[in-house]
Structures are given as C-alpha cells and as structure tokens.
Amino acid sequence: MTACVEGDVADTRVVVGLSGGVDSAVTALRLVEAGYQVEGLFMFNWSEDEAGRCQAADDFDDAAAVCDVLDIPLHRADFSHEYKTRVFRYFLDSYAAGRTPNPDVLCNREIKFDAFLHHARRLGADWIATGHYARLVHDERGTRLLRGADPAKDQSYFLAAVPMAALERTLFPLGDLPKTDVRAMARRAGLPVHDKPDSTGVCFIGERDFEGFLRQYLSGRAGPVRVAGGPLAGRVIGEHAGLIYYTIGQRRGLGLGGVPGAAQAPWYVADKDLGSDTLWVTQDAAHPALMETRLTTAAPHWLGPAPALPLRCAAQVRYRQRAIACRVTAQDSGLAVQFDHPPRAIAPGQYAVFYDGDHCLGSAEIVTAGAPAPLQSATA
C-alpha cells in the first residue's frame, strides 16, 4: 500500500474502525506495515441482543485479539443512541411508508463517517480508515471516490452519500485488493480472524430473520395479493401480512405455490399499492413494472462540485446490479433519470448512485420508478 497522506507517515495517527472481521483487521495490518501510528476503535451500535447472545461482545473480543497480534491500542465507543435516532428511526419510517430503505448507506453517512470520525478526531487521529472495498484518490485535484479494484467486492455504492469532508480524512487500504488476497494476508500475519465468515444482513443488526425482526417494531396490515397482467390479471390469489414486508422484485418468501391456472414458475413482486393495501405479483420476470427505464429522486448528494445538468453518465440502483448508461436532468428539487436500458426492479427508498467510469459522482434516494399505471390492465 502506498502512502497517500501529506508528511511523514510515522508521525501520522490513523484510527481504524475495527469490527472484529477480517477486512478491518487487514486494514489495520496494512497501515501498521506501512509505518503509520495505528489505533483501533470498536463501535457498539446496537444495544439489544437476540436469544440471550450478544454478537457485539464476541466481535469485540475478536477485535481485541487482532490488536494484541498487531500490538496496537483498542478503543471502544457506544454509538447505539446515534444509530437508533439517526439510522434506525428513518429505516422504520421508510418501511412504514412503503419504501425499501438502504440502512448500509445511512449507517455509513451517519455513523461510520460522522460519529466515528468525530470520536476518532477527539482521540487525536489525523485520518480514519475502514475495511471498505473502494478507492480514494487524494491529490492536488482534491479527493475522488473510485470503485474498488475487485468488481465482486466493490462497495462504493454504499459510500456515495458520505460527506466529502469525511472522505477527505479517510483511507481505504483494501481498495486495490481482491478478497482472496485479504484472507491470505491475514493468514500469513497470524491474525485470528483470517477464516472468520463474512457478516451479512442489515447493517449492525446482524444475521437474523428480517421479517420477524421488523415485526417487533411495525405492524403490517393484511391485504389481497393480485396478479399483474396475463390471463389471471386482477385475480386475487392470496393474502399478504403487510406491504411493509415486501420489496419490488422480491421472489422469495411469497408463499404462492400451486396457484390454479398459473404456470409452475416463480412469482415476483411487481408493485405495492398502499391505497388499497394490494400486493401486485407476476410470473413474468420481464414484466414492464420490473423493467422501468425512468426514475425520480430526492435532492442529490454530489461528491464534489455539482455537475452541469443535463448529464450523461451511468447509474446503479442496487448494490448487486451493474451501472447503466443514462441521462440525468433536474426535476423539482431532485433529479429525473432516463436509462438507455431498464435496470431491474427499481425500488423507492433505495439509492441511485452515479458513475463516470470508476469515478463515483454522488447519489440520490429514489422517490418514484416509471409512470403510475393500473396493473390490472397490464399485459404479462
């Protein structure tokens, strides 16, 4: 890893956000090997526990074991209040309004690159570092966020709402590495988490039954499940427990097997009508409702000076999807995005993230997808 900060790295203090996983452990390892003054900080962001077992305590023990091997100090901070008020409250409000929020985007903006950054600066940090798979260029032109070198692990999508002032004081030592190299480096260095499985699930909530978790905080309102288009158009084929538990394009967990007159094929969520509490579904993976070419957004967050509009670039509407060429124009206080080809299952509440090649330009929360149309008359 090349030095990318001003001055002597030996006099530069970097506080690493240590999660107890292999990515943040190798982040600290690379900085130590590069000669920085490195300290770790473990964030407690969720105070509740499931089935009497506290995953955060186990993760803290793993982070402490990593610091012992690297011979660096470990701090701890409790950001659970900030997480509940600045991330989780919005998360619940979005689901209650029928949207599909992205808590990882919010968590990065509000916790990892705000609360953590300010706490690290109070500890005397010159820079912070995390184990994200993305690249930051700090040079005379300023700071630019780029995709990670490993396209399978690139996490720039989740970082596109972070304030530029925070990115200007951040290092991403894993941005030039594939995940296989990260695990190999951890193994060679004797880090005890070298074979620890990657965490998945909702940011800081962990791996658990998501619908069951959501039911602890929100009550869904039951309603009909209707077919969007085709020979069964408009027919009620079931009842759902609440629109809040579903997202556009969802395939699993619909419980719609064996519908009379329907093919033996998967069902997909095509739309959610909050006015009538109707869940619209289809067996057509290319149904027009899943292949919209237009979306509108809330006010954008640009990583740098706002570009002149209209703008030709590419936009990505979900983490695991590819970016698609589009034309971006101003609309009210937000943006209108017209794609050259339809992305799959645009979901309000997710983020449109804009790219010029590998350069991440910024992001905006999706408000609407396509133009409203009655699905009863749509053809499959």
From TrEMBL:
Localization, UniProt: Cytoplasm
Region (Interaction with target base in tRNA): 102-104
Record-linked Gene3D superfamilies: Adenine nucleotide alpha hydrolases-like domains (2.30.30.280), HUPs (3.40.50.620), Translation factors (2.40.30.10)
GO biological process: tRNA wobble position uridine thiolation
Region described as Interaction with tRNA: spans on this chain: 153-155, 318-319
Ranges for domain tRNA-specific 2-thiouridylase MnmA-like C-terminal: 294-366
SUPFAM superfamilies according to UniProt: Adenine nucleotide alpha hydrolases-like
Binding-site residues for ATP, renumbered to this chain: G17, L18, S19, G20, G21, V22, D23, S24, M43, G131
A GO term from the CC aspect: cytoplasm
Pfam families: tRNA_Me_trans, tRNA_Me_trans_C, tRNA_Me_trans_M
Enzyme Commission identifier(s): 2.8.1.13
Site for Interaction with tRNA, residues: H132, Q350
Chain ranges of the tRNA-specific 2-thiouridylase MnmA-like central domain: 212-282
InterPro entries: MnmA-like (IPR004506), MnmA-like_C (IPR046885), MnmA-like_central (IPR046884), MnmA-like_central_sf (IPR023382), Rossmann-like_a/b/a_fold (IPR014729)
Active site: C107 (nucleophile), C203 (cysteine persulfide intermediate)
Chief location category: cytoplasm
One term of GO molecular function: tRNA binding
Reaction equations catalysed: S-sulfanyl-L-cysteinyl-[protein] + uridine(34) in tRNA + AH2 + ATP = 2-thiouridine(34) in tRNA + L-cysteinyl-[protein] + A + AMP + diphosphate + H(+)
Keywords from the named record: ATP-binding, Cytoplasm, Disulfide bond, Nucleotide-binding, RNA-binding, Transferase, tRNA processing, tRNA-binding
HAMAP family: tRNA_thiouridyl_MnmA (MF_00144)
Family: Belongs to the MnmA/TRMU family.
Physiological role: Catalyzes the 2-thiolation of uridine at the wobble position (U34) of tRNA, leading to the formation of s(2)U34.
Name assigned to this protein: tRNA-specific 2-thiouridylase MnmA
Biological source species: Salinisphaera orenii MK-B5
Annotated gene: mnmA
